[in-house]
């Protein structure tokens, strides 16, 4: 195994369960697991997933060494007091940049996402007013220059709203991808420690993806059993770890 007995494996913390569930869903789409699931008497994919979530500590046990290292680094990072502000090359605190000012002080969304949401709404509201006025004036006097100007401004406002919405959607997607791949790091943390933490998180995820989850899911699928009851039906730690890990 990895030098950590299954009984001594660390408990999977709640904040790490989203990573575990995401990797579990990936593992359930693996060809090897799908082949085992097609065998007679094998549980369904949903039942196998429920069993793995119920036995998360057991399923993640082969990656215990990497997980302990990740937990230790994360605790060290959280216990290290951050600097009072961004530090420049001379070691003195510098003023935060524009993006930092647009973010909330507690690491929340801040003003920038709010503007991303409000800009399309305000642009479309302005477009509606301008287009109504423009078409009204053109109906009263087709040659009136003000009507044509209002229509032009209204269509520009409408296009601005569409563009702002597209930018907002792209930003949300990029943020989701970034948050899904980056380790949770306190604001103002040491960059070197943060990079080491990110590496440790990737190592743990790799161990789950390549070593822990495939073997667990294959053993659980072969164990089968009525209704795929979690934790039972002959699915023992020996079946999960294999003869080399005992």
Task: Tell me about this structure.
There is one protein chain. The protein is an all-alpha fold. It folds into two domains: 6-82 and 202-241; 110-181. 65% of the residues lie in helices and 0% in strands. The chain contains ten helices and no strands. It has helices at residues 17-28, 31-37, 45-54, 56-60, 64-79, 98-102, 111-140, 145-181, 191-223, 237-241. α1 packs across α9, α5 runs antiparallel to α9 and α7 packs antiparallel against α8. The longest helix is centred in the middle third of the chain and has 37 residues, at 145-181. The radius of gyration is 27 Å and the shape is elongated.
The outline comes out as elongated
Poorly predicted runs are 1-5, 85-109, 226-246
Described by strand count, sense and barrel closure, the largest sheet is:
none
Q: What fraction of the residues are assigned to beta strands by DSSP?
A: under 5%
Helix content: 55-70%
Alpha plus pi helix count: 10
The SSE string, one letter per element, is HHHHHHHHHH
Mean pLDDT across all amino acids: 76
Number of strand elements: 0
Q: How many separate domains?
A: 2
- Structural category is mainly alpha
Q: In whole angstroms, how far apart are the ends?
A: 8 Å
Rg computed from alpha carbons, rounded to a whole number of angstroms: 27 Å
